[in-house]
Amino acid sequence: MKENKTILITGVAGLLGSRLADWLVENTNHNIVGVDDLSGGYIDNVHNQVQFHQFDLAESDRLEKLVKVTNPNVVYHLAAYAAEGLSPFMRSFNYKNNLMSTSKVINACINYEVDRLVFTSTMAVYGHGNPPFDEEDTPTPIDPYGIAKYACEMDIQVAGEQHGLDWCIIRPHNVYGEKQNIWDRYRNVLGIWMYQHMNNEKMTIFGDGEQKRAFSYMGDCLEPLYKAGFDKRASKEIINLGSSKFYTINQANEILIDVLKEGTPIYLEPRHEVKNAHPTWEKSMELLDYEDTTDLKTGLHNMWIWAQTQPNRQRKSWEIYEVEKGIYDFWKNK
Question: Residue 279 in 3-state DSSP?
Fold first, then answer.
């Protein structure tokens, strides 16, 4: 039997964190410690075998103390509020939530000699770029969320050079599946559509819907995400993780309507966003043994079955934006 390790997961109540924790409990004998402030995830998502701690990474020194006490071998820093389109209107929150939180994670990993830090970045670091986006491309993010994530990437790499921190940076893209937050109006388009359908609303599409995206089923990403923390091949590597297939937003909407057997889209004003954002995937197959096995229709079918079992939670909505100028009509508080 392999040696038991201790793994710390930030953002353990969100989609990536909770599903990774589930996979670890079901497939390993490792000890799992989880942190989340429950601002974007739900305690119901957290496996009962996870040692759970609730606090805000950016506002507390508890992480440093927790790492000292639990002595994790690997830290998966998955906590983030991933709302690219909203970030220009919530800059201070965005940088606190991403940069400040990550700086504390890095400090703790260095101070207590964590074996490896795995950080989930984002496709948003590529900006408009020249798709398919490759890990060797120079990032040119176009929004504060992408800027913050790229800054975190650079800081982690500096920590590796100066302090000997081992790391792996994962750039997931449009991950969806069971345990996703479908009650957030600002992110996760597939979940937004499911929520709208369940509440007798039309499915919102921004602009003409011809934006291209690669949608990645969470179930396909779990073992590769685990390997990012333990496999020697992943040491100090930046790796795109997710589906090799891409769709227009219109095509994705049509597939979901086919799964639901009904539904009507409504087209709203375009957002400031990248037109086509789909990446290369070969590196994830080579280094993490990723397999793109779940097609979008099957993944949406699985997610829809789960969504129908969920409570009708209150939808997340910002009452006050830091910047009101230029806010889209569909996000204005009326």
Answer: strand
